Amino acid sequence: MMAYILDLDGVIFRGSEVIAGAPDAVNRLLDSARVLFLTNNSTQSRDAVSARLNASGIRCRESDVITAGYAAAVHIRKRYGAQKIYPIGEAGLIHELKAEGHEIDEGGDEDAVADFVVVGLDRDFTYEKLRIGLRNILAGAGLIATNTDPLLPVEHGFLPGAGAIVRALETASGRSAFVIGKPNPPMMDAVIDHLGLPAHECTLVGDRLDTDILAGSRYGMKTVLVLTGVDTAESVRQSRIKPDAVIGSIAEMREI
Length: 256
Ligand SMILES: [Mg+2]
Prior knowledge:
- Helix content is about 35%, strand content about 20%.
- By secondary structure, the protein is an alpha/beta fold.
- The protein has two domains: about 140 residues, Rossmann fold (3-Layer(aba) Sandwich), CATH 3.40.50.1000; about 100 residues, HAD superfamily/HAD-like (Rossmann fold, 3-Layer(aba) Sandwich), CATH 3.40.50.1000.
- The strands form four sheets. Strands 5-4-1-13-14-15 form a six-stranded parallel sheet, sandwiched between helices.
- α2 links the parallel β4 and β5.
- The model has no long low-confidence stretch (mean pLDDT about 95).
- The site of magnesium ion has 8 residues, from loops.
C-alpha cells in the first residue's frame, strides 16, 4: 500500500482558492493509494478542513487530516495528560485542544496560571494576548508552538505566519518554544501513528523545502516539491535540502 501525505497551503489551496487541477489529481491518487492531508496551519479544525476539501471536490474524512493544532493537542495529552492551556490561536486550535480533553484558560483571571501557553496563527493577535501569554510563561507555564512558519501563502502574496507570533513571545520571555509542526518529530510521529505504514511506502508532497521536504526526507519518505507555494526553482537550486522530484503543481502529480 502506498500513501501520499499532502500539504495543503501552497499545494491544494492558495488562500481561499483551490489550485487548478488539484481535486482531480488528488482523487486519482485516492483510486489506488491512501492520502493523508497534513498542515502546519492550526486555524481550522480537522473537521472544518475535511469539509473544505469535500466542498472542493476532494474525497476526505476528518480522520484523514492532521493539523498542527491537533498534533499539539495529542502530543500534550500523551506526554502530560489533560492540561490547562492558555491558547493564542483561532477556533480550530481551541476546538482540537478541547477535543483531546484539555481545559482552556480564557486569560481573564490574573491569578490563574496555565500549564502551557500554546501558540498558533492568530489573525486576532493583540498586545493584550502577548501580555497574558508572557505573564503565564513567567509564572511557570510551558511554551508550545503549533508551528513556526514565517509566512502563509494567500491568493496574491503572503500573510505573516505563526512563527512571527511565536517569536514575539520568545523574545519577551527569553524562552524557546517547543515546536510541534513540520519538520519536527511530534507532527511526523502523528502521521506515522495514523498511517501505520513504513516510511518508504510514503510520499510527502509540499511547497516548502525547510518544513515539508525536510520532514519527509528525515523520516525516509519520498519527497515531491510543488512550485505553487513558497519555494521556487531558484530556491531549490540554492538549498541544501533536495526533494526527490520537483513539479509545477499537484495537477502534474502521477504515482511515483
Ligand atoms: Mg504549504
